[in-house]
Each structure stands twice: as C-alpha cells, then as structure tokens.
Amino acid sequence: MGKLLRYFANQPLKVKLLCFFLPLIICSVGLTGVLSYLFAEKQLRDNAYYLLRDTAYQTNLFLNDRFATMFEQLYNIENDPAIQNMILNRYSPESKQKYLDLIGLNDRLNEIYRRYPKIIDSIYIYLDNGHEFSLMNDSIAVREGIRLEEWLRRYRGSPKGYYWLNDHRDRIFETFEERRVLSCFKLIGTPASKVKGLVILNLKSDHFLEILRNIRVSAHGYLALISPDGLLLSKNAAPRYRLSRAALAGLRDRAGADGGYERRNPSGEKLFIVYNTITMNQWRIAAVVPERDLLAEAGRIKTTSLAIILVLSLISAGLALVFAGNIATSVKYLSEQVKRVEAGDFDTQFLIAEQNEVGILAKGLTSLVNTVKQLLRKVREEQEQKRQIELLALQSQINPHFLYNTLSSIKHLIEMNENGRAAKMVGALTKFFMIGISKGKEVITVAEEIEHIRNYLLILQMRYSQDFDFELAVNEEIADCKIIKLTLQPLVENSIYHGIKNKPEKGIIRVSGYRAGRHAVIEVYDDGAGMTEARLAELRQSLAAPEVAEHPMTFGLRNVNERLRLHFGPDYGLDIFSEPGRYTRILVRLPFPEQRQEENE
User: Fold this and answer.
1) Labelling 581: which of 274, 300, 305, 590 has CA 20 to 30 A away?
2) What homologous superfamily is domain 400-600 in, according to CATH?
C-alpha cells in the first residue's frame, strides 16, 4: 500500500485528478448539479461586477487624463501674459506690445491646436473691453460670438470660475453642419466687474464617443458619461434598456466616488449599474448592463455541467476517495503559503518533495517570490534615490531671493531715472527665465545654457558692478552639445558668493568651453578666495558620497553632479580644483556626439 501511495504521489497532476476525485463526484451528483448552477450564476454576477467596475475605473482614468490635459491647456491660455495684458489693458497708444501679444497668442493657440487636433474642436476668447480671439480650423463659421451677460447669469457657483459642459450643440461657432462638442471654460469677472470675459475650449464629442464605443460592455449594455447638464451614451440603446430620468438623477446624486447597484427601469427590465466619478470635473462614468446579458451563459453552463458530472460519475468507480487526501494536502499547503505571500511575507518557502507538476510549481513559486523580493528592494532604493535627487533639482531651480533682489534693483534704477540700465536688466531677466523654463525641456544645448549664464551674470554685474567682471569664451565646436538645464548657474553662483565675495579687490569669473577628445568640457573659473586642501577634499568627498549632503555649499554642486551622472552616465560630472587665495576651477564633463566627432575628424 505504501509503495502504491508513493507511486501515485509521483504521478502527473492529471492522473491524480482522475483517480482521486471521481468517486466524490459520484456521491454528490444531485447536490453538485444544483450547487454548480448556483455557483456559476453567482460567479457570473461577481465576475461581471468586477469586470464592469474595472471597465468603469479604467475608462474613468483614461477620460480623466484627457480632461486634465484639456484643463491644463485652458489654464495656460487663461494665465498667458498676453491675456493678462488684455484684461488689464496695459497698452499705451504708441506701444506695439498689443500687436506682439496678439501674434504671440495666435502662435501659442495654434500650437495647442496642432498638439491635440483629435480632441480640440475650437478655441474662443472674448473680453468685453474690445478683445476677441477665435480659432477653428476644421469648419467654416457662418457666425460666431456670445452674449456674455447670458453666460455670466447662467453659470455661477464655481469659486474659481471654471465650468464643464457635456455633449451639446456648439453655441459659439455657427456652421453649415451641426457640430457636437464638450466644453471646458473659464468665466473672467462677475456681472459687476470692470472687465468681464470668457475663455473656452470646445472638445470634439466624436473623440469621446469613439473612446466609449471602443469599450465593449455586453451585447445590450453601454457606457454613459453623465454630468449635471447632460448625457453622452456609447450607443443608442433600445428603450427597454435605457435609464429613466429619475434613475439618471439618482445616479448623479448618489453618494461616494464609485459603486454599483441594481435597478428596474419603467419597462420592468432589471439593469446592473456600476459607476465611477471622474476627479477632474466630478462627472460620472457608468456601465449599464441588463441582467439577462449577465446570465445568458448560465443555462448552457448548467446543462453542460450536469452532463459532464453524469459522464464522469459512470467511470469514476470509487478510486478517487482513497487518494483525495494526498492531493488535497499539497494543494492546501501551497494555498496557505500563497496567502502568506499575499499578506506580505516574502520569506515564505514552498517546500514540496514531490517531483511532479506540484513540485515544479512549488520550485517556481519559490523562485518567483525571491525575484519579486529582490525587485521590490531594488525599486525602493531607486525610487528613494530618484526622489531625493528630484527634490534637490527642484529646490535648486527656484531662487526667490534672486528674483526679489533683481526686481528691487530694477525699481531702484527706475527711481534714479536710469531707464536704459533698467530696460537692459529687464531684458536680461526675461531671457534668463525664458531659457530657464525652455518650454519644459530638461536638456538644452550648451549655447542655450551659456546664454542663460550670460544673462544671469549680466544681472548680478549690474547689481554688484564693483565686485567682479566676467568673460564667456565657449568654442563653437561644442555649442550644439547637450547639457542638462541649470547646470552652470549653481556653479557660477558658488563662484560669486563663496569666491569673489570673500575677496577684497575686484574679481573675475571666466566661463570657457572646449572639446577634449570624446568629451566636451566647460570650465567655470574665478580668482576669488579659493579653498584649502582640507576643504577641497571634503567637497570632493561629498560629491562622491552615496548620501546627499546638506552643507550649503555642497548642496547645489552635488545636485548638479548627480543629475549629470544619472543622465549621461558615471563617466560625466564635475571635477573641482582650487588653491587658497588664488582661484577655483570647476570642470563640467559632457559627452561629445559621436556623429559630430566623426564629421570634424
């Protein structure tokens, strides 16, 4: 008997199932038939609920991403300097700024339109002080315009003036063919404001309808995008499957961000509804499925299950009852170990001595758990390092004291009637921040970074004209090389505040650049106070240390070094040389493009 048990213990899992469990099926034919059908029906319901919930959730994420992107464009348009100038009417009669603003605004709106041609239908801006702007490329408008007082009267209650409209006929641009749009808009001012206006993005209803139609719910089910002002359905459902007005109102007012429930419509059809709330505008995305769709397979499953049970019962012959404990023990053990892993115990081992499929599965699970544990540890370490570096990068880009002091200097120059110098400083400050922002790009050219530093040094030189001079001499050969934005500013800032400021006489800052083999090198030199050997060693050690230093001087330098190494590789970064009372030199090593190198050679 023992040999027989060991023989079957090493048999394939398929053989064990056939031999162990068929007798149990014979003893439970009647009960199993009923329970299997009830279980199948319940399982179908549960699976349908989870599937619908996941469908609504995934659709919600996708739509929320689209709405958030469009809201970001609306916010950028509203806060565009040109719009603000128009609202405040900052133009003098002889100034050309108004035309420059209009040209710039037109370029930016066209850029937004070109970036999202499948989503944006049209853009319209209206101010009651005489400024109006519209953009619609897909159709020709017969008439365009709004009655601002009507909009201000109709839409109230939003603290910041932002509103969303569901699917509707466009009421701003009248075209030969009716166009359906969704709208995101901002009301400027109130009926009592001196300047009132509207900024609106019309979004193509067909784009969002296509998103809903591409998601199949069931044969008669559909998706509904529900808002206080309207409804967008993925398909034209039959009347018996539609939600009544009361059901729609109840769904809008339902508590909680998501959920599911059953409801009968006026025709008596039982509908299963799962909904999710879109964070961006608090609209509801709902999946509506008739109960008959959920249970369409239940009858067939019932018949098939009973037939299979009867056939298996005839050939089982009582063998499975003897060996059921063996297979149950292994499966139960694996299940318990899996539950421990689900609970977070990644030290769990799957120790199965059998050499069949269960044993192979146990070894695979052990290997998988060990791999997941290693990956989780690696991800946590990488995420923590990335978080610290990104935090430092963000901190190093924002220097409110520099902006405050520069604006104070401009004000002082204006009060002294030195308008030429004030204008020069304003121009330098504008270029400084334009390159600093650089349309959100993280990597720019060396030429752009040098121009950024030129404006930075020009501003500081005008503020501290007696403290230092500066020279910029960068070889054109490396002008197009790539560099991480805001690499040189912290280095120049250290040269001024830790080098030149500590020198009694006037100093000089020299920024030069040249090619050195396969590297591009930018050198920041100052003839300031320099550093002692101990301080230089401490600084170099801080740059190489794995932990982030918090010393004021090494804070920015380490941040620059880590950003360069993470982006370009460990062969690139900063080298520092200094002699007390004489100089400090910081070398920035960058990759020289191979294609450019071959052309030069």
Assistant:
1) 590
2) Histidine kinase-like ATPase, C-terminal domain (3.30.565.10)
